[in-house]
Amino acid sequence: MSHPDELSERELRVLEAVVQSYIDTAEPAGSQTIARQSTLGVSPATIRSTMSELEEKGYLFHPHTSAGRIPTDRGYRVIVDSLKAAPISVEAHRALTTELDGTRAATEELLRRAAQVLGVLTQELGVAVMPALDRVILERLELVPVAADRLLLVFNLRSGMVRTIFVHVRVVLSETVVQEVARVLNERLGGLTLLEIRGSLGLRLRDAGSVAASRELLNIFIAQGDGLFDLDADDERAVMLGSASVLAEQPEFASNEKMRELLLITERRDLLKRALESRRDSGMTISIGAENDDARLAGFTLVTSSYQAGELRGVIGVMGPTRMPYDKVVGLVSHTSRLVEGLLA
Questions:
Q1: Long-range contacts, 249-258 (Cβ 8 Å, 24+)
Q2: Quick one: fold of 4-82?
Q3: Of 2, 84, 130, 313, which shows the fewest CB atoms inside 10 Å?
């Protein structure tokens, strides 16, 4: 395979023209079309010859028996590596700020709205992943009896986030015992990150519990600590998606096979969670087709930007076909990420 640096100026300009034509029309680009639409100043025959050279080098290919070419993942990569993000329009900025305003106190709702509006503005599938909570500090725990065999455990985290899970118990516990256990947990675990708690829970609670009933409840926390204090494990809750119907209207998903691929991806939150979580410290990231680590994402491009506000780190962006207006999409994803950071802060 040829290296992009080895492409001539003419080859680069023809490649740019083919990519832009295919993004605009979703149709393979022929030499006549490129000659007519571009300002290359060369004949269709010269363009046809250049396109053949680009195909030999792996930047273009022609589907079936069509005379027109479409870009490969490698061809898109050359263009993406040299693009400048397009400034967002006044209308897009207004839509984002209007939709996200008023969600400062609800991280999940903020990210859900951000993914939704980003999908509408880009005409791709908006995606977002909740902040990782491992390094967020626990401020206070609350234990609330909700049934004879069940307690509600409420996590109050430093970044203003609240999480709740149920703890199952084998015996009926008095309110005094529940309050005593809550006091011990707050005394010994408050001010620690969830990661620190999971790594030292047994040691910190080893000599706690003055009566048998409270000791029994504390033993449940010790035994189930890895699950109880791992608040990042819920794939369904961690990944936010915009409307897939926006993406389904694109020509790439006209066939039943491609539509099934899209539906499978949207249903596999665990797959998307892994793909997005790996980008939490990566800034702006664009993975095109086969560049994605998971082969099931090989037909898609992921454009994401990490966001950070204090201890909270997550990812927001879009997923779509490899044929997308990258300059516009990158600009919108970057701008949305900065807005989310500001609102979380």
A1: 249/123, 250/26, 250/123, 250/320, 250/321, 251/26, 252/26, 252/299, 252/321, 252/323, 253/321, 258/299
A2: Arc Repressor Mutant, subunit A (1.10.10)
A3: 84
